[in-house]
Design a protein that fits this description.
There is one protein chain. This protein has 311 residues and is an alpha/beta fold. The chain folds into 2 domains: 139 residues, NAD(P)-binding Rossmann-like Domain (Rossmann fold, 3-Layer(aba) Sandwich); 165 residues, Alpha-Beta Complex (L-2-Hydroxyisocaproate Dehydrogenase, Chain A, domain 2). The chain is 44% helix and 20% strand. It has 10 helices and 14 strands. The strands form 4 sheets. Strands 3-2-1-4-5-6 form a 6-stranded parallel beta sheet, with helices on both faces. A 3-stranded antiparallel beta sheet has the order 7-10-11. The chain has a 3-stranded antiparallel beta sheet with strand order 12-13-14. It is globular, with a radius of gyration of 19 Å. The protein starts with a strand and ends with a helix. The relative contact order is 0.14. The structure holds adenosine-5-diphosphoribose. The site of adenosine-5-diphosphoribose (APR) has 26 residues, from helix 1 and helix 3.
């Protein structure tokens, strides 16, 4: 069986382990700085396996040596966003945590593909690529699947249709400037703009942009974790099964969409090689303007990162 190590056994990490084990996608190692907690969660999950008849092995640890020979490393370690705290406030603390998580796991799993979840997402993925020196194909940020799933959930609720009939594409940075593409999104092939009145669609777009904050405000402590961890499991599955799945992910821009030297959410193809291909959409003027605004905001966080850590 494949092996996936998850650094950070908190809400998103442990929930990702849960989804992965339940699907028997891989043996899972949960690593955290807190002593006993990852071991406890790992053992608890392992003890659920006989009930559902799955043979995934789940273990918890505080020792990076136990992550040896992982096919995929998922990084969720960090401090979760609190009410009123912007994603960018998290920058310095999370940069130190994520940088160490990446370099330590790479020592034991030199061939692993990295999926990054820690916020501020685009900038943490950039940091992992810089700290590990890996090609962009092997460092992928999770954000677009989650943002698109939120929009799909809201559209399905509003239209009263199955979520399976709803395709939405949210690109750009994982922040309030994200780019929900209403022209490319559809219900059973019918463009959203033809299916829903403009005011309803605008409300959905706004709610999607603030989707993370909505959950933070409700939870009071911590941030969303069911949907973020599921998004990350979809990415891991696409890689392990070499599915050639096209989904929006944060990837290193190397000239595509006119962008360079930054991580940004665009449609990519996921397969055994990790991020195998960037897909380029044709934008109209208003989409282009949104995309550029979002890119400027992500660039700013990248610059802020460079002022707090050496890359
Ligand atoms: N090494 C390993 N684990 C660490 C380290 C470290 N240096 N520092 C913190 N952690 C662990 C914490 O002990 C905690 O268990 O990371 C875990 C984070 O879990 P939560 O606080 O529950 O946060 P979570 O909701 O999982 O979010 C983690 O993912 O979605 C993003 O915005 C979110 O950046 C946040 C991250």
């Amino acid at each position: 069986m494949n092996k996936i190590s998850i650094v950070g056994a908190g809400n998103t990490g442990a929930t990702a382990a849960h989804w992965l084990a339940e699907r028997e996608l891989a043996n899972v190692v949960l690593l955290d700085v807190v002593e006993g907690m990852p071991q406890g969660k790992g053992l608890d999950l392992l003890e659920a396996m006989p009930i559902i008849g799955k043979d995934a092995k789940v273990t918890g640890t505080n020792d990076y040596a136990d992550t040896k020979d992982s096919d995929i490393v998922i990084i969720t370690a960090g401090i979760a966003r609190k009410p009123g705290m912007s994603r960018d406030d998290l920058l310095k603390t999370n940069a130190e945590i994520v940088g160490k998580a990446a370099t330590e796991t790479l020592k034991y799993s030199p061939n692993a593909i990295f999926i990054v979840l820690t916020n501020p997402l685009d900038t943490m993925a950039y940091l992992v690529m810089k700290k590990t020196g890996l090609p962009r194909s092997r460092v992928i940020g999770q954000a677009g699947i989650l943002d698109s799933a939120r929009m799909r959930a809201f559209v399905a609720m509003e239209a009263g249709v199955s979520v399976e009939n709803v395709q939405c594409y949210v690109l750009g940075g994982h922040g309030d400037e994200m780019v929900p593409l209403t022209r490319h999104s559809n219900i059973a092939g019918i463009p959203l703009r033809d299916y829903l009145p403009a005011d309803k669609l605008e409300a959905i777009v706004n709610r999607t942009r603030k989707g993370g904050g909505e959950i933070v405000n409700l939870l009071k402590t911590g941030s969303a974790y069911y949907a973020p961890s599921m998004a990350c499991v979809q990415m891991a599955e696409a890689i392990l099964k070499d599915k050639k799945l096209i989904v929006p992910c944060a990837t290193h821009m190397e000239g595509e969409y006119g962008l360079n030297d930054m991580y940004f959410g665009v449609p990519v193809m996921l397969g055994a090689g990790g991020m195998e291909k960037v897909i380029e959409y044709q934008f109209d003027e208003s989409e282009k303007a949104m995309f550029e605004k979002s890119a400027a905001s992500v660039k700013e966080t990248h610059e802020a990162l460079k002022s707090v850590v050496a890359l």
